[in-house]
């Protein structure tokens, strides 16, 4: 709200202003004088005035000073002219509208121009108050705090009364607009480039991190798989065997030490060293997991238990087992086919019953070589921790006598018929010679065979 006196001290008139407070200057939107209002439209400078007398338009020079004030039909209402410091040349001060030199509002009472922060006095070319923006020592012409536009009013204007600047022509306004558009475009382009670069960097970092994560996952998965294989699937055992006794009647004490790295129990590689017979064998077996294992660690199920093969100083063997597990008890069948120098081929079979850690059963072992021993026995196998004690007792005889017994049983009718047709006197002699000849023949064969095929 402003209050201004008229040319005559009495009566007074009241003037109110509506301003655009978002701007330092060029901010008058409405002026009301004694209930008569005028509205102003702006572009780079004031464009038009509308009020009771209709719309009127401004024509300005490069400094923003109005030179012509016209009606809507183009008719001239007023014209103005100023010297370099804003003095009115024709003497017709602003009457119909409020704007004068460089767009300042003219105060008819004080005969000064309102420059926002202070009053400008065109008669002396100076401001009426100190500049709140101080000068700069390296530019001495800026140190005068009252000078108007640093005494260069032809090319400079001071819109706000605080700092001088170059005036804007239509061309400079257009160039400034183009500069702002170019700046906005360049800024937008830079932001797009920055965003694109950042997005590319983010994608690159994400891809690199994803590759690293996949690689780490693959390495960890491989390590976990190897660990699971070594601890649950593949195992290695070192077995020390000591045999007490010979032949069919013997006791074998076995100590099994599991490897600390390979502790699986499904595919097991076994290194066996018999310190009594000096035999060294290596076996590889596959154990079929039970159908069910209860909380106490007892197995339940039926079917194949294990298969495998071994080789070493005792020859090459293929073995397997099947059975039924019922917790603390079970039934088991074992089979073994061994290829070696002494027996050529030896077939071994066992059938046993288990209660807790003790197995009791019967077995038979038949070699292909007639001079090797065939065996039939009963055995007990007890396990306590990693120590197993296996004991067997039974009978054995040369396989030749087994062959002979089978032949006699098979050809018995023909042999009896032949003996009946022979001279009856030969029968007593043969019967008397048999106890003498049999040990001699066995000793002869045994001595020669043992020299060619010693115990392995």
The helix fraction, in percent, is: 25-40%
In which order are the strands of the major sheet placed? 15-16-26-25-24-23-22-21-20-18-17
Look at the helices and sheets and give the structural class: alpha+beta
Give the overall shape, derived from the CA principal axes: rod-shaped
Can you give the mean pLDDT?
A: 83
Q: Beta fraction of the residues?
A: 35-45%
Largest β-sheet summary: 11 strands, mixed, barrel
| Tally of alpha and pi helices | 3
Count of domains: 3
Please write the string of helix (H) and strand (E) elements.
Answer: EEEEEEEEEEEEEEHEEEEEEEEEEEEHH
The end-to-end distance, rounded to whole angstroms, is 127 Å
Radius of gyration: 62 Å
User: What's the β-strand tally?
Assistant: 26
**Unreliable segments of 5+ consecutive residues:** 1-7, 445-456
Could you explain the architecture of this structure?
The radius of gyration is 62 Å and the shape is rod-shaped. Helices cover 25% and strands 42% of the residues. The chain has helices at residues 170-233, 399-421, 426-452, and strands spanning 2-4, 13-19, 28-33, 36-42, 46-51, 54-60, 66-71, 76-79, 105-107, 112-114, 119-121, 126-127, 156-157, 165-166, 234-246, 249-263, 267-274, 279-287, 292-293, 299-312, 315-326, 329-340, 344-355, 358-367, 373-384, 387-398. It contains three helices and 26 strands. The chain folds into three domains: 2-168, no CATH class; 232-398; 402-452, no CATH class. Residues 1-7 and 445-456 have low confidence and may be disordered.
């Amino acid at each position: 709200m402003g209050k201004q006196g008229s040319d005559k001290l009495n009566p007074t008139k009241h003037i109110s202003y509506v301003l655009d407070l978002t701007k330092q200057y060029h901010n008058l939107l409405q002026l009301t004088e004694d209930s008569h209002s005028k509205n102003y439209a702006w572009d780079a400078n004031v464009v038009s005035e509308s009020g009771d007398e209709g719309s009127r338009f401004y024509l300005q020079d490069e400094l923003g000073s109005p030179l012509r004030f016209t009606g809507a039909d183009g008719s001239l209402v007023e014209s103005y002219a100023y010297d370099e410091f804003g003095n009115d040349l024709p003497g017709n001060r602003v009457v119909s509208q409020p704007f004068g030199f460089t767009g300042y509002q003219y105060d008819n009472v004080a005969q000064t121009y309102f420059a926002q922060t202070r009053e400008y006095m065109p008669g002396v070319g100076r401001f009426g108050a100190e500049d709140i923006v101080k000068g700069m020592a390296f530019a001495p012409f800026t140190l005068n705090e009252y000078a108007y536009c640093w005494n260069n009013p032809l090319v400079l204007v001071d819109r706000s009364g605080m700092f001088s600047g170059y005036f804007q022509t239509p061309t400079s306004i257009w160039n400034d607009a183009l500069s702002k558009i170019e700046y906005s475009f360049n800024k937008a382009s830079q932001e797009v480039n920055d965003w694109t670069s950042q997005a590319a960097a983010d994608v690159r970092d994400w891809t690199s991190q994803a590759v690293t994560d996949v690689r780490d996952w693959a390495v960890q998965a491989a390590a976990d798989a190897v660990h699971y294989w070594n601890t649950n699937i593949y195992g290695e055992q070192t077995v020390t065997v000591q045999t007490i006794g010979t032949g069919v009647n013997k006791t074998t004490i076995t100590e099994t030490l599991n490897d600390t790295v390979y502790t699986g129990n499904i595919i097991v590689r076994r290194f066996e060293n018999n310190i009594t017979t000096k035999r060294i064998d290596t076996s590889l077996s596959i154990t079929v997991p039970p159908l069910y294992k209860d909380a106490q660690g007892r197995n339940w199920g039926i079917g194949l238990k294990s298969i495998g093969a071994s080789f070493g100083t005792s020859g090459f063997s293929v073995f397997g087992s099947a059975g039924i597990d019922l917790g603390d008890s079970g039934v088991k069948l074992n089979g073994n086919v061994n290829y070696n120098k002494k027996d050529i081929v030896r077939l071994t079979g066992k059938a046993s019953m288990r209660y807790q850690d003790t197995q009791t059963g019967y077995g038979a072992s038949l070699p292909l070589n007639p001079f090797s021993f065939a065996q039939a026995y009963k055995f007990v196998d007890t396990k306590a921790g990693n120590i197993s004690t296996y004991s067997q007792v039974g009978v054995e005889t040369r396989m030749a006598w087994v062959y002979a017994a089978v032949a006699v049983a098979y050809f018995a009718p023909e042999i009896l018929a032949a003996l009946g047709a022979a001279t009856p006197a030969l029968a007593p002699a043969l019967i008397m010679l048999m106890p003498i000849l049999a040990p001699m023949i066995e000793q002869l064969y045994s001595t020669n065979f043992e020299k060619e095929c010693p115990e392995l």
